[in-house]
């Protein structure tokens, strides 16, 4: 969700606007606020590229920003300057740089801004393949701004080089999981999904939604174990949706994965909604999207339909589920995770 309150990183940029005046500017990365709208007032042109669909939905309504959300950036014309908002995932930052640099002019300036506890101090390592010198321009509000000049040869971006695959087996069902950098469950089956799949309360059938699908582990498992089900997977991350599509294809499974910010692009109702929802946004614990998901879930479930959720056991989700459905069953609880169930 895009905030009208500027992040510390954007507040730092407010006193460094001269670098972007009258430039063809590409803004990319983890964009949390409306500050790019201010940069669009001083730059010659602003193009925004993010893997976050919530940013796409917000900036689609801003007339003077060219807005993109995908896993591979394509530019009609090369940019003079790039500004990268640091992501929490270092692998995702490396992927992003590889993704955009071929679309920058020779000797383009690349800026990177972020909070110190997000790993921004590693900017010199991220910039090393692209520029000889990395300079720290400014620091304030526990954030830092770095810059390099693109003066090294840039390889053509090949997404396949960034895909990680790993095998998983749950209850005799074998899958090959494909993930891109920055996607939850990158490289291994996470504990929460493992507990959930080992403790399905009801047999999934009919129209099934895996909301917040990550690499597509849950939805693909259901598609393989219960092939009569009609599986759909959604996520706010373009990297996650692409990973889920790759996982479906790698296992020759029917189903579809598409972008949605909670219910933004979902139509109709489901017989079974299942989720291992994230609760971190950036470095901050973030519950709003999951709370919206749970509060409105009843409206997206058919009569006699089911909701199944795994979450960290300290979270107060049972109260929200009970308020929405009138009941909440604790299926299983470990020291860290709990599986909850409700039906309509």
Q: Would you mind describing this structure in some detail?
A:
This protein is α/β, with parallel strands linked by helices and 344 residues long. It has 2 domains: 8-159, Rossmann fold (3-Layer(aba) Sandwich); 163-343, Vaccinia Virus protein VP39 (Rossmann fold, 3-Layer(aba) Sandwich), CATH 3.40.50. The chain is built from 10 helices and 18 strands. Strands 3-2-1-4-5-7-6 form a 7-stranded mixed β-sheet, with helices on both faces. Helix 9 (288-296) runs parallel beside helix 10 (317-325). The longest helix has 13 residues, at 238-250. It is elongated, with a radius of gyration of 21 Å. The two termini are 29 Å apart. Mean pLDDT is 95; it is low at 281-285.
Topology (SSEs and partners):
Layout: H1 8-13, E1 24-29, H2 35-39, E2 45-50, H3 53-59, E3 65-69, E4 79-85, H4 90-100, E5 104-115, H5 123-127, E6 134-140, E7 143-149, E8 164-170, E9 173-179, H6 191-197, E10 207-211, H7 217-225, E11 230-235, H8 238-250, E12 256-259, E13 270-275, E14 280-281, E15 284-285, H9 288-296, E16 301-312, H10 317-325, E17 329-333, E18 337-343
Parallel strand pairs: 1-2, 1-4, 2-3, 4-5, 10-11, 10-13, 11-12, 13-16
Antiparallel strand pairs: 5-7, 6-7, 8-9, 14-15, 16-18, 17-18
